[in-house]
From TrEMBL:
Keyword Oxidoreductase: yes
Pfam families the UniProt entry points to: TauD
Domain TauD/TfdA-like span(s) in chain numbering: 38-301
Keywords on record: Oxidoreductase
GO molecular function: oxidoreductase activity
Name of the protein in question: Clavaminate synthase-like protein
Species whose genome carries this gene: Acorus calamus
Organism phylogeny: Eukaryota, Viridiplantae, Streptophyta, Embryophyta, Tracheophyta
UniProt entry tagged with the keyword Oxidoreductase: yes
Database matches in SUPFAM superfamilies: Clavaminate synthase-like (SSF51197)
Length: 311
């Protein structure tokens, strides 16, 4: 067997199941890509049970090495749709994002607002941050369970009338900020073509291109909770993607406001149940994007985390 089960300090137990599952090499110099190819059926079962697998201690020294690991699983590649510019580092391997490292990224499922979203995400640590910069993961079903325990009336209202997400994006990147423009998101500055791409790629119910150049994307009313493989997942988070929440407005399906109490409960549940993974060089983290939310803690540069997403 190519893998030895291990433990990390940060791991948690949910219903007696360890999260994430950590696997080390059984022999020094074990090639992770070769090991995966031999045991990928078993690894798929492990991922389904645990939601996330951390491969640690393998000699994955480059983006090309990471690419071989991704290929070894045999899953189809998926193209990224989003407002973050990602740089291609190797076949199927890209830089994670361009948000400055001194800012955190809130918990989310990758590409949750698109019509087609990835089922799995690979993260690879080429260079860990000297301080902070952890990738955080949390089971989405735990969020749902805890919210139902703490905010039952809120959850009943969400189930009954859903939520509406309004996201306003500028046409061009605002100087000194991350590119959150609709031009970057849709890879065009032509309104007619942009509307076409919205219909093709995004799950929004409407989009309005305003005279000031901004565009308002409306999603819903929609239930943010979905079910995958018998597990509930809080798939559409009620926090903005980053600390800068400008342009994001979320309300109930009837237009009424979400209470501060519900927002605080949601944030508290995330923080109380997440795992902040402290990266080591060469780590590979495989996450089930349908059942696990991920986030990024603020940190100090340099930091290089690469990603690959699969259908």
């Amino acid at each position: 067997m190519a893998f030895v089960e291990g433990k990390i300090e940060e791991e948690r137990l949910f219903g007696g199941v360890v999260f994430p599952k950590t696997l080390f090499p059984s022999n020094a110099g074990e090639d992770l890509a070769i090991a995966v190819a031999k045991e990928r059926n078993r690894l798929s079962k492990v991922l389904k049970e645990h939601g996330a697998i951390l491969f640690r201690g393998f000699d994955v020294g480059s983006a090309e090495d990471f690419s071989r690991v991704v290929e070894a699983f045999g899953w189809d590649e998926m193209g990224y749709v989003g407002a973050t510019t990602r740089v291609k580092m190797a076949n199927r391997v890209f830089s994670a994002n361009e948000i400055p490292l001194d800012q955190s990224i809130n918990f989310h499922h990758e590409m949750a607002l698109t019509k087609e979203y990835p089922s799995k995400i690979f993260f690879y640590c080429f260079e860990p941050a000297p301080l902070g910069g952890e990738t955080s993961i949390v089971p989405s079903n735990v969020i749902v369970e805890k919210m139902e325990e703490q905010m039952l009336k809120f959850m009943e209202k969400v189930s009954d009338i859903g939520l509406i997400f309004h996201i306003t994006r500028p046409k061009e990147k605002i100087q000194g900020s991350v590119d959150n423009s609709w031009k970057c998101l849709l890879k065009t500055d032509d309104v007619v073509e942009a509307e076409k791409r919205v219909r093709e790629k995004l799950s929004c119910t409407s989009v309005k291109f305003n005279n000031d150049g901004t565009a308002k994307f409306t999603y819903g009313p929609v239930n943010p909770v979905r079910e995958f493989g018998g597990k509930k997942a809080w798939f559409l988070p009620i926090l903005g993607y980053s600390e800068n929440k400008k342009g994001v407005d979320i309300s109930f399906g009837d237009g009424s406001d979400i209470s501060r109490e519900a927002i605080d409960a949601y944030k508290g549940i995330l923080e109380e149940n997440c795992v902040d993974l402290k990266w080591k060089k060469g780590d590979v983290l495989l996450v089930d994007n349908l059942t696990i939310q991920h986030a990024r803690r603020a940190g100090r540069p340099p930091r290089a985390i690469y990603v690959s997403i699969c259908k």
